[in-house]
Amino acid sequence: MKATDILRQEHKVIERVIAAVNKAADAFTRERNFDGDTFEKAADFFRNFTDKCHHGKEEDVLFKALEARGVPSEGGPVGVMLMEHDMGREQIRGIFANIEAAKEEDGGAQIRVVDHARRFAMILTDHIFKENNILFNMADEVLTDEEQQDLVHRFTLVEVHDMGAGTHEKYLAIANELAEKYGVPEIDAHDPVFAGGCHHHRGCHGH
Ligand SMILES: [Fe+2]
Ligand SMILES: [Fe+2]
After folding, report:
1. Beta-carbon neighbour count of residue 169 at 10 Å?
2. What is the value of pTM for the model shown?
3. Residue 85 Cα, ligand 2 centroid: separation in angstroms?
């Protein structure tokens, strides 16, 4: 499994939570039914899994490796990705700033939570599309197999040192809970992203 395959897998998990959040946002718009629990759990997932863990792997490991191979971090695709990570962070802060009041039936705060959640979903959906179709393909071209394996090793260090053992699993469980609550389909195990590279390694399992 390549480093970019791991990131593509994480995108699938993030997309499931985004789908659940969009459904919760639609329910609010349609019938003013504010699901505070879902928005709060999703914001926690976005802050810790999407931003700290996934964007941490991209910014501290993958983008740095690309930089070392001559892909500039300012301007160009990496610069755009960094800017979009920041735009996403702003929306996460917006959800957290309003969530307590929103849970206490403050209608204005509820509208702001839903608005920030929708913006986050839009920014990240477009962002993931660009990474999957442009940046990661570029990475697969410039990085050797050895370099990809080195990045995989460094991802593990991010998991253990920055996140803490068991944290990844905790957020996968939250993603499943929210996706099931809103009827978001499971990730297809036959998806090429999950099948890709797995047969080379024993014990490979898709999340
Ligand atoms: Fe990213
Ligand atoms: Fe990403």
Report:
1. 10
2. 0.90
3. 9
Report how far ligand 2's centroid is from the alpha carbon of 46 (Å).
Answer: 12
Spatial distance between the Cα atoms of 9 and 1, rounded to a whole number of angstroms: 11
The bound ligand whose nearest atom lies closest to the alpha carbon of 8 is 2
Q: Tell me how far the alpha carbon of residue 101 lies from the centroid of ligand 1, in angstroms.
A: 30
Ligand 2 ion: Cβ-proximal residues, 5 Å cutoff: 131
Which of the residue ranges 70-84, 128-142, 165-179 would you say has the lowest mean pLDDT? Answer: 70-84
Helix axes 3-31, 107-130, angle to 10 degrees: 150
Give 28 Cα–ligand 1 centroid separation in angstroms.
28
Q: Closest ligand to 88 CA?
A: 1
Q: Which residue has the tokens 């609550």?
A: 181
> In angstroms, rounded to a whole number, what is the distance separating the alpha carbons of residues 164 and 150?
20
Rg (C-alpha) for the chain, rounded Å, is 18
Backbone angles phi, psi at 94, to 5 degrees: -60, -40
Q: What is the pLDDT of residues 6-30, one digit of tens each?
A: 999 999 999 999 999 999 999 999 9
% pLDDT > 70, the chain = 91
Q: Is the pLDDT of residue 202 over 50?
A: no
Q: Show the domains of the chain with their CATH numbers.
A: 3-200 (1.20.120.520)
Q: What is the residue-averaged pLDDT of the chain?
A: 90
Report how far ligand 2's centroid is from the alpha carbon of 24 (Å): 23
Between the CA of 156 and the centroid of ligand 2 the distance, in Å, is 16
Confidence band for 73, pLDDT divided at 50, 70 and 90: confident
